[in-house]
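README, section 4: Worked example with a bound small molecule

Sections 1 through 3 covered apo chains. Here we extend the same pipeline to holo records, where the ligand is supplied as SMILES alongside the sequence. The molecule in this example is flavin mononucleotide. Nothing else about the input changes; the structure line simply encodes the ligand pose together with the chain.
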Amino acid sequence: MTTTPLSPASALLRPVTAGALQAPNRIWMAPLTRNRANPDGTPNALQAEHYAQRAGAGVIITEGSQPSAVGQGYPNTPGLHTDGQQEGWQRIAEAVHSGGGRIVVQLMHAGRISHSSVNGGRTPVAPSAVRPAGEVFTATGPQPFPEPRELRTDELAEVVAEFASAARRAVAAGLDGVELHAANGYLLHQFLADGVNRRTDAYGGSPQNRARFVVEVAAAVSAAIGADRVGIRISPLNPFNDITEDDASVYEVLTTQLAELGLAYLHVLAEPGDPIIGKLRAIWPSTLVLNTGFGAESDRDQLDRLIADGVADAVSVGRQFIANPDLVRRWTLGAELNEPDPAGFYGGGAQGYTDYSALS
Ligand SMILES: Cc1cc2nc3c(=O)[nH]c(=O)nc-3n(C[C@H](O)[C@H](O)[C@H](O)COP(=O)(O)O)c2cc1C
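The generated complex, written as structure tokens:
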């Protein structure tokens, strides 16, 4: 546990620009699914309170939020495809902005990591009809994953348009931008991964082909709201959600193509020391945000060094932001930290969500 104050010259405390985002510090809040939206995906006052409490983050990246009904992967995750959901996000944007913060919404289409009981009775869709191993978390408990339906080539433009439409709604709601979730085994990652994408059309096979769908989504979302409001998250070779991929070259192909779009930032989830970080850093022309992964909780001094050494421009922190609404202040002062309680991570009410204390 860190107990010394950060030096005022600390890399973590320097402002950073990411496209249109002007962050006063480099300690960003990582996207965290908390399953507390209304059953119809409308974000509510409890979520507004939660995010407003964390307005001190350099940037808040919200929990993954579905751009379409079929894209919902878990109960009570927020959406961004109806007017009511957009209004809910507007209240969150207002609450965070009145607390002096910045907030982008993570657009997450779960793809095959879904079940008819959470997505309104639909068959989940995926690049290929490959059933994930394991069980899906539903309102009535864990259930086996169903086999997803392979998206037809002529349907892909529609899915791209749903992302663009959700991004337009995000900006209309007053949010500062969007992050495309191309990590952790959800739809966009499923297209990238050679073990899950078995397509024989222009969207499967070579790294160029597997990157194509993600690039098309990023291009359409950029055209809709401006590339300087769009970030993207990737987790190269992360096996989460039964992803299998042997070929990391797709990430070099992907980032080379995304670099031409002028996106606000690239958000990489990888263990520190993973050589992929340096490779992507060399390709990526703008802000790189690093999350050091699930292995160990983010460590303040390690993150400070990673930025000071130029490995990344900013970092995102997950579990410690769950437990410490004023994490930036606590890290700055070297104050004691609250411990996150996993029992309250996924679902429930205020307990374990908005009741973690801030320093007085
Ligand atoms: C409760 C919980 C929910 C998460 N939800 C998301 C999510 O919606 N989208 C995402 O990209 N990552 C998600 N993650 C991963 C975090 O963003 C982050 O990468 C991970 O917690 C490791 O960072 P940490 O050590 O700082 O917690 C989640 C993690 C946790 C613990």
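What to look for in the output: The longest strand covers residues 60-65. The radius of gyration is 19 Å.

Section 5 describes how to batch many such records.
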